[in-house]
Design goal:
This protein is of the alpha+beta class. Helices cover about 40% and strands about 15% of the residues.
Length: about 300
C-alpha cells in the first residue's frame, strides 16, 4: 500500500520499488520483491530475493545514509566483531522518487529485546567490545578536515530546546524534577577532550540483531560519524539491567563525565521517540518508557 504523499515524504509503494530496481539494477530484475513489515520510521524496506534488501528513505533527514554506508561500512566491517550491513549498490533518484536509495546484503536475525538480553552480562561485554573496536578504527582519510566536518555529529546541547519541551509535555508520565536535574547535569558535564572517535549514533535495541539468542549484527548506520562517543551509551539504558550495565561500563572504561553525557543522550532520544510515537505505538511506548526510566536511575 502506498504511503501518504507530503512535500517532504514521497509516496513509496512496492510497485515503485520494483520499477526502480528493474531499471537501475537489471541484474536483479528477476528476483522476487516483498515489503518488510518491521520497516523503521526512516526507511521503507523491501527484501529482494533471498540475499538482498532495498531501502528507500521516507524523509529528507535520511537521504545521506545510502552513500555514507557505501563509503564506510565495507572499510569498517573487517575491524568489527559483529556483522554490519554490506552495501552493494546505491540507486539514483528516478520515476518521481527524489533521493538516493540503497541495496545491501540481507542479514539474518531477530531484533534484540530487553526481555531476552537485559540480564546478560555476556551480551553487555560483547557490545562494549563492538564499541571499542569501532572507536579504535581510525583511517587517515577519515580524519582529514573535510571528512571530519561532514561526519562530525551534533553536540548534546543541540537537543536542549526540544528536550525541555518534551520534559514539560510528559510531566504527567515521568518525574519532571528528576528529568530536569539529569538534563542540566548532562549539559554541564565536561565535554569529550580526547581525539574524536567513530560512533554509531543510533545505538539502541532496534538496531541490534540476534541469532539463536546471541548478538549477531549491528544495523542502521545513518547517524554514524566522528566525535564524542557518549551517544552510543544509549544502549546501556535501552537494553541492560543494572549488573550488565555496570559490566558494560567497566569493559568500555567510561569515565564519569562521559557516562553522564550518555545518560543525557538516552533521556533526550527516549523523550523524542516517546512524544513522537508512544500514543500510536504501544511497543515504542514501552521501550522508551524503559529507556527514560533507566536513564534516570543511571
Amino acid at each position: 500500500m502506498a504511503t501518504q504523499r507530503t512535500p517532504d515524504r514521497p509516496s513509496i509503494d512496492t510497485a515503485l520499488v520494483r520499477r526502480l530496481v528493474d531499471r537501475q539494477f537489471p541484474q536483479w530484475a528477476q528476483l522476487p520483491l516483498r515489503p518488510l513489515g518491521q520497516a523503521g520510521s526512516d526507511h521503507v524496506i523491501h527484501r529482494l530475493g533471498d540475499e538482498l534488501t532495498v531501502r528507500l528513505p521516507r524523509h529528507a533527514g535520511a537521504i545521506g545514509q545510502a552513500r555514507k554506508e557505501l563509503e564506510w561500512l565495507p572499510r569498517l566491517a573487517p575491524h568489527l566483531p559483529l556483522a554490519v550491513p554490506f552495501p552493494v549498490g546505491v540507486g539514483e533518484p528516478g520515476l518521481g522518487y527524489p533521493w538516493p536509495w540503497a541495496v545491501s546484503r540481507w542479514l539474518d536475525g531477530e531484533v534484540a529485546t530487553a526481555g531476552a538480553l537485559a540480564d546478560s552480562s555476556e551480551a553487555a561485554v560483547e557490545l562494549a567490545g563492538f564499541l571499542t573496536a569501532l572507536q579504535g578504527y581510525a583511517p587517515a582519510e577519515a580524519m582529514t578536515p573535510s571528512v571530519r566536518e561532514e561526519l562530525t555529529g551534533r553536540p548534546l546541547s543541540a537537543r536542549d530546546e526540544a528536550t525541555r519541551t518534551a520534559i514539560a509535555e510528559v510531566g504527567g508520565v515521568f518525574d519532571t524534577t528528576a528529568m530536569t536535574e539529569l538534563w542540566d547535569a548532562a549539559l554541564g558535564a565536561p565535554g569529550w577532550d580526547r581525539p574524536p572517535v567513530w560512533f554509531h549514533g543510533d545505538f539502541h535495541t532496534g538496531n541490534l540483531l540476534t541469532v539463536d539468542g546471541r548478538l549477531s549484527a549491528v544495523i542502521d548506520f545513518g547517524e554514524f560519524g566522528i566525535g564524542d562517543p557518549a551517544c552510543d551509551l544509549t544502549i546501556a539504558f535501552t537494553l541492560m539491567s543494572a549488573a550488565p550495565r555496570a559490566a558494560f561500563r567497566a569493559a568500555l572504561g567510561v569515565d564519569d563525565a562521559t557516562w553522564l553525557r550518555g545518560r543525557g543522550w538516552a533521556l533526550a532520544t527516549g523523550l523524542n521517540a516517546y512524544t513522537s510515537y508512544a500514543a500510536v505505538n504501544p511497543g515504542i511506548a514501552a521501550q522508551t518508557t524503559r529507556q527514560v526510566t533507566q536513564a534516570l536511575v543511571g
